[in-house]
Amino acid sequence: MNGPRSAPLRSAFRTHAGVVRPVNEDGYLDAPEMGVWLVADGMGGGAQGGMASRRLVEAMAAVTMTGDLAARTHQVAATLARVNGDLHAVAAAEGDGRLIATTVACLLGFEAGACRCLWAGDSRVYRWRRGALVRLTRDHSQVQELLEAKRIDPAEAAGHKLRNVITRAVGAAPELDLEETPADVEAGDIFLLCSDGLHTLVSDAELGRLLGEGSPDELARMLVHLAVSRGAPDNVTVGIVQP
Known about the structure:
The structure is a single chain. It contains seven helices and eleven strands. By secondary structure, it is an alpha+beta fold. The chain has a single domain (10-242), classed as 4-Layer Sandwich (Phosphatase 2c, domain 1), CATH 3.60.40.10.
């Protein structure tokens, strides 16, 4: 495939402010015609966090994607780098030391049985295949670093006092440190994108059991409803993509 698929893919996104926060700082892009889907979780509080995620989504939506998967991956990375510089400049102009940034988890597909993920922060991309769920992204967080250093175990991670400390984000530093990974695609795969408002309340094991039935819209609605029913102290955003 040279460029995005001409036939629309099955995809759906849903977002909710949650039970506690009055403002939804999450954003998303559902653009099957571009072959791009993303979730962004704004940081900075209220209007500024929302502005950060909104700028990222608007910038990505304005890109004219061309070329193969590698070329489009480069275009996405360049766009995210530009938004990073813009947000960092806004924060510097504010002069109060406040962070104005956003996480991002982006899925690009699909070409010759392949896709790619780019991300910064703790929003995630998963792939569900024949009942097995695999997380394609690795959280950029202090808790993840502690887990990898074996200083804590997974049971301690969920309630750890540093669980909300993010180590990478768009706008957090003068230069954006994106992580990227390729993934293979098979018929019947389901891709899940989400902000931490979902994965802090619904375990990977639960997600693996829940993703097998329903349309993308039904699955997105169901997962958001599940998080909200559990008290959702944070904004919740869910995207489902079926190649």
